[in-house]
Amino acid sequence: xxxKRLIMAMLLVFSLVPLYIFGSVMIASxxxxxxxxxxxxxxxxxxxxxMNIESYTENQRLTMLQVAQTKSxxxxxxxxxxxxxxxxxxxxxxxxxxxxxxxxxxxxxxxVSIVDVNYKVVGSTENFMLQESSTLRNVSADILxxxxxxxxxxxxxxxxxxxxxVLACQKIYCDEDCIGFVLAExxxxxxxxxxxxxxxxxxxxxxxxxxFDEVITAGRFGxxxxxxxxxxxxxCEEYKEKWDAINRNTNSKGSIRFEADGVKxxxxxxxxxxxxxxxxxxxxxxxxNETSSSFILIGVLSLVCxxxxxxxxxYLLTRKITQPIDxxxxxxxxxxxxxxxxxxxxxxxNGELGQIAEQINMLLECVEHQTRQxxxxxxxxxxxxxxxxxxxxxxxxxxxxDMEELVSRASELGIExxxxxxxxxNFRDFNTKYGHQIGxxxxxxxxxxxxxxxxxVVGRNGGDEFIFCMLKRRISDNLNLVxxxxxxxxxxxxxxxxxxxxxxxxxxGIMCAKGEHLAMKELEKGADSxxxxxxxxxxxxxxxxxxxxxxxx
Length: 553
Description:
Elements: H1 2-68, H2 71-82, H3 90-105, E1 109-116, E2 121-124, H4 141-144, E3 148-158, E4 161-174, E5 177-187, H5 189-198, E6 205-209, E7 215-220, H6 237-244, E8 253-260, E9 263-271, E10 278-284, H7 285-304, H8 307-338, H9 352-382, H10 396-413, E11 416-424, H11 427-434, H12 436-453, E12 457-462, E13 465-472, H13 479-490, E14 494-495, E15 501-502, E16 506-513, H14 520-536, E17 542-546
Parallel strand pairs: 16-17
Antiparallel strand pairs: 1-2, 1-5, 3-4, 4-5, 6-7, 6-10, 8-9, 9-10, 11-13, 11-16, 12-13, 14-15
Helix pairs in contact: 1-5, 1-7, 1-8, 1-9, 2-3, 7-8, 11-12, 12-13
């Protein structure tokens, strides 16, 4: 009986020991794969936040660069430096329109201002006094040395209440010399919302600070507003010691593992391009490891069971856990290597791993959608204004797009809009008698005269036909005065190499309209008809027609 018991014990030992060893190896492998998956997941989360912030700031940079390159803005800054800034001038009105549109169409931007290189206010969407000296108290010297930079966070009173904002600064260049700055105040609500929508669990903490250690946003999942005490967990001694030991100059990006009140954490940190900001993503690893601990417990209980049950459990562990974790980890690794957010994790949606995979897929889908949108916006912002190569004014496509916008604005504001069609009289004679080169000079002369006289947009419609469009907002926009100025410029003519001056005349048809429902095609049709009236009246003149709602000229 003792021998039988000994044999049974030996069989039990020799059967269970390999199984326990095998089971332990599988559990350890599962634990490592789970930790790798979590590490990849959290690193992807941190990189996603940084990518969204940098995409947003790049969008703002392109918007501010477009403002900085606008001719009316550069003209106003030059005038401010020369002491000739005129708030009643046309270019100043256009600059104000540019600033207002920049603020309205840029998300979370609460103000846009222009200052010259002497820090005097040139224009602003806020109620700053013109030529008021700006101290730029929220911009340090190193920011002003860079083309674009994000400054510190501060609190300022606006018309609709107190707001926390960060300052973005973009240089204005003219002939490679800095002549001023575009300043935009960005509401930190954007960063609060980004943090709120990006965090995966309620135990994750996101904190973004500026170079002066002032918090831009901080908080946990489910908390939209900024929370000053959200990053208290990083105040423990272990974290401070490890953080102080990091050389930020050589290690601008990395992670710190520490323990606070018996809870294990990991903090991922990284700098943000075009700023001295620091982003920290702190995650509670103890909470995340609870899921993996449950799997280990299942494995241990399975090892205690009989051999068949143990092998069955091992099969389930391999089929239901290890492979999905490998698949998740492998997919996340490929996403990082290829930078391709269109990839998805194919895992059975049943169980916790399936839910995690589904959440990651949703995150990847969100990032892919945002990336696609940002690329589309960037292409739109980077698209240069299309100019006619001969005359230097807007080409047909660009002038019609600007006219559409002006017609829409005239309808909204209830102000008068003027559209004019200009046709060079007897243009074929210039080409026949003097050659195409002189014909080109005639077109350039007409374009220059229009651009100088018309306080609006001017473009070439094709051939020897031009279009102009303007809104009547001041007394100086009187149409008769504009046309007198245009014909006065035409009288200078084109000078030939022989010294002979060739006179140039034009017939102009003008449509003036005012109302709530203005149609672009009807306005163009009216201007075209008026031009033919001018032609029939003997040429070298202009003819004006109005709609029923327009005022008499």
